[in-house]
Design goal:
Strands 2-1-3-4-5-13 form a six-stranded parallel sheet, sandwiched between helices. A four-stranded parallel sheet has the order 7-6-8-9, sandwiched between helices. Strand 8 (245-250), helix 11 and strand 9 form a beta-alpha-beta unit. The protein has helices at 3-16, 19-29, 31-37, 40-43, 70-86, 101-113, 130-138, 164-178, 195-208, 228-241, 253-264, 280-288, 300-315, and strands at residues 59-63, 89-92, 118-121, 142-146, 157-160, 183-189, 216-223, 245-250, 273-276, 294-297, 326-328, 334-336, 342-344, 349-352. By secondary structure, the protein is α/β, with parallel strands linked by helices. The protein folds into two domains: 4-161 and 300-346, Response regulator (Rossmann fold, 3-Layer(aba) Sandwich); 164-298 and 353-358, 3-Layer(aba) Sandwich (Rossmann fold). 43% of the residues lie in helices and 18% in strands. The chain binds alpha-L-rhamnopyranose. Residues 65, 69, 71, 122, 147-148, 190, 196, 226, 252-254, 277 line the site of alpha-L-rhamnopyranose. Residues 65, 69, 71, 122, 147-148, 190, 196, 226, 252-254, 277 line the site of alpha-L-rhamnopyranose (RAM). InterPro entries: Bact_Solute-Bind_Prot2, Peripla_BP_I, RhaS, SBP_2_dom.
């Protein structure tokens, strides 16, 4: 069966049956395509034609971990702007909680049923979305993860904010310097299942094995679920449980902001150091009032833009997701696909009192 007729059959099924049934049935009718497409980066269908024309009028759905998180608002707006420039259509769907994994699965299925041409997904969990994403790919939809990955076989490419190893290691380096390489530290993370945070935390632990950190002790990893209130309470809990705590790394924009808010109103302000990943706009006042010395991040709008441009390049056949393929991402320049279909945005920026006023995101 040709893809166009598969799409028509799926549309008819979707109209006639419940979503779950239609999506399952569509997956079933395209079994060969599953084999051909679902190897993601490693064995995407067909050969890339770097000179293929960019298709117009494509619909790309953005599905962040969480819609009401300003970080994702910036990222997805970056995607929207790029899609509009390219003559494509943008939509955004997603859960309001960063731990609503089944909600994310339903949104993938909704986008599949709506027959979008591509989707950009920030995964709350590495495995939970796989069945739904493979169904999407088997229906000819290009799947890009951005910000937080799934297993590589469940998407065509992953647009990463920076090298995960660099991010994990530099967060430890930033905090260790601030505490004079001595004392107890804790991590305040996002959701317990989040692929991006868990990967960074693994590299933080690797970095801590270096003898220069022999007097630094990681006492706990706490989870604030990218929820402001839960992150605030977890910070309070860490300080109660570990009265000698010298520093906290929070690799989440929601977590670091809530931790800064707690510290700034407490006797620990300026004494317990805080670093990690935050937006300059969220953190400016805590840098100015002496709660925070330095933290880092990439430009979320650029991450969204690169995710959009990658999805369009895939849908236009310019790339398939294989290692070594290159493509032009508009004014952002040329990007090369790395191992396991990973594309790195670039190097993050470290913000401190000297440069923070130069950034507005
Ligand atoms: C939060 C989310 C996101 C992460 C940033 C740093 O907004 O957890 O996935 O990349 O923080």
């Amino acid at each position: 069966m040709r893809r166009a007729s598969i799409r028509r059959t799926c549309a008819a099924l979707a109209a006639a049956t419940s979503l779950a049934l239609a999506v399952t049935a569509c997956g079933g009718t395209t079994k060969n395509d599953v084999n051909k497409d679902s190897g993601a980066a490693a064995s995407s269908a067909g050969k890339a034609d770097p000179n293929a024309a960019t298709k117009k009028g494509l619909t790309v759905g953005f599905l962040p971990k969480q819609v009401n998180n300003p970080y994702f608002t910036s990222a997805d707006n970056g995607g929207k702007k790029a899609l509009e420039e390219l003559g494509e259509k943008y939509k955004e769907v997603g859960p309001s909680s960063a731990t609503d994994t089944s909600g994310q699965v339903s949104y993938v299925n909704t986008l599949t049923q709506q027959q979008v041409n591509g989707m950009a997904v920030s995964a709350q969990d590495p495995g939970a979305l796989c069945t739904a994403l493979k169904q999407a790919m088997s229906n000819g939809i290009k799947v890009v993860t951005y910000d937080s990955d799934t297993k590589p076989e469940c998407r065509n490419a992953f647009v990463s904010q920076a090298s995960a190893e660099d991010l994990g290691r530099t967060e430890v380096q930033l905090l260790a310097e601030q505490i004079g390489y001595k004392g107890e530290i804790a991590i305040l993370s996002a959701a317990q299942t989040a692929t991006n945070q868990n990967t960074w935390i693994d590299y933080m632990k690797e970095e801590l094995k270096d003898p220069k950190y022999k007097d630094v002790k990681l006492v706990k990893v706490a989870y604030g679920n990218d929820d402001a209130q839960a992150s605030f309470q977890q910070t309070q809990g860490l300080l109660q449980q570990y009265p000698n705590l010298k520093g906290i790394i929070s690799p989440t924009t929601v977590g670091i902001k809530a931790a800064a808010q707690y510290l700034s109103g407490s006797k620990y302000k300026g004494k317990v150091k805080l670093s990690g990943l935050g937006t300059p706009n969220d953190m400016r006042k805590y840098v100015k009032n002496g709660t925070v010395e330095a933290f880092e991040l990439w430009d979320p709008a650029k991450l969204g833009e690169l995710a959009a441009r990658t999805t369009v390049a895939l849908a236009s056949g310019q790339i398939t997701g294989k290692e070594g393929e290159t493509f032009k991402a508009g004014d952002m320049g040329t990007y090369t696909i790395g191992k396991d279909g990973v594309i790195n945005l670039g190097k993050p920026t470290v913000f401190d009192a000297k440069n923070i006023d130069q950034f507005n995101f």
